[in-house]
Amino acid sequence: MSAVATHTRHIGLVATASSTYNSPFNLARRFASLDLISGGRAGWNVVTSFDTGTSKNFGRDEHLDYATRYGRALEFVRVARGLWDFYEDDAFPADVDSDLFLDPGRLHALDHVGEHFKVAGPLNISPSPQGQPVIFQAGVSAEGRDLAARVAEGIYAPGVTLEQEQEYYADIKRRTAAHGRDPDHIKVFIHGGPVVGSTDEEARRREREIFEEDNDFERNPALLGRSFGAYDFSVHDLDVPFPDVAHLAEKDGRTGAARIIERAPEQQMTLRQVAEVANAFRQSPFTGAPDTVADTIEKWYDAGTLDGINPAFRNNDDLNLLVDGVVPLLQKRGLFRTEYEAEPLRGNLGLPIPANRHTRERELAGG
Questions:
Q1: Which contacts (CB < 8 Å, 24+ apart) does range 352-355 have?
Q2: Which tens digit of pLDDT belongs to each residue from 227-272?
Q3: Rounded distance, CA 347 to CA 10, Å?
């Protein structure tokens, strides 16, 4: 990300990092450095990790349970934000006449002692133009949604159907308000996966070709196992009833696993059938000719499902079809910017710069 920062000017640099397998001080400093290097364009996608196999590389025999992971994540973010807040806005007067570069009274240690972390602080790095990196999150479960409502400023949402996304969007905004935050200060980006062609038929054909090129059944059981603690399904016969592995889902991808656990016994599905269904072809709603894709984006936006789209592409050609064909249509409809509004990432997302806690407390105290 630091390398990308030196070759770009506006693009936001959002990196994914686990709150389960990092320490707050180290990670807070890394993101603060990226934020400073990029001129205020850094973001952190907070994840709790869901693969038990990962735990064995960090001194744990088993992955932390759901409640512990999300409790740790909430405290982790709060510690990081406390560390990013340690300099007050006027901590660096750089006054030659008074021979004062740093006002030590405007520098604050954190001295955090919590359930999961004990961090003294402060960080030894100055703040960026956007104050703090932007916090992103991608939770779908109830715990994930609540974490997002508490701390996130951007969300990566799945983008399945319009009705499901309406429910998700409304729920996130409602939870955010319930935690005393402005719902407009959390932006929902759905996974669009757009496939654009000269006609609707060509785009649908191309989407199917992409799926078939990437879909190898031999990989499906392994991909399925990620929702169950990196469980090795290869030890089972593919054509026997789906095994009882419900207990493994509690520490990993609970949301996706729950659907499988509920459906497989009801429909008497075999392991092969579950693996096929879990990785079946699903057409993106954002597939078609440029005007079709633009119409769909506009429809979803007006229906209250998204603030933006997180597109995924296999190559530059697919990206260019969206940029050259769809974006100009969205710009004409007033749905997409024609120029950047700001240099920092927060400005381009319509997010405020966080008020420094120590400065605010001093002002309230009349200091």
A1: 352/185, 353/130, 353/131, 354/81, 354/85, 354/131, 354/132
A2: 776 677 888 888 888 888 777 665 555 556 667 777 777 778 888 8
A3: 10
Tokens of 249: 């889902």
* Length of the chain measured in residues: 367
Q: Tell which residue, 251, 296, 255, has the closest CA to residue 168.
A: 255
The secondary structure element, H or E, covering residue 25 is: helix 24-37
Closest alpha carbon to 130 in 49, 41, 262: 41
Does pTM surpass 0.90? no
Q: What does the alpha-carbon distance between residue 62 and residue 286 come to, in Å, rounded to a whole number? A: 39
Alpha carbon of 273 to those of 21, 73, 160, 254: distances in Å? 34, 35, 21, 20
| List of residues 6+ apart from 38 with CB closer than 8 A | 1, 2, 5, 13, 128
Measured CA to CA in angstroms, residue 126 lies from 74, 296, 336, 357 at distances of 24, 44, 34, 16
Nearest to 136 by CA among 121, 126, 151: 151
**Are the C-beta atoms of 314 and 210 separated by less than 8 Å?**
yes
Q: Report d(CA 159, CA 188) in Å as an integer.
A: 10
Helices of type H across 140-268: 142-151, 162-178, 200-214, 220-225, 246-249, 254-266
Q: Which two tokens stand for residue 32?
A: 């603060």
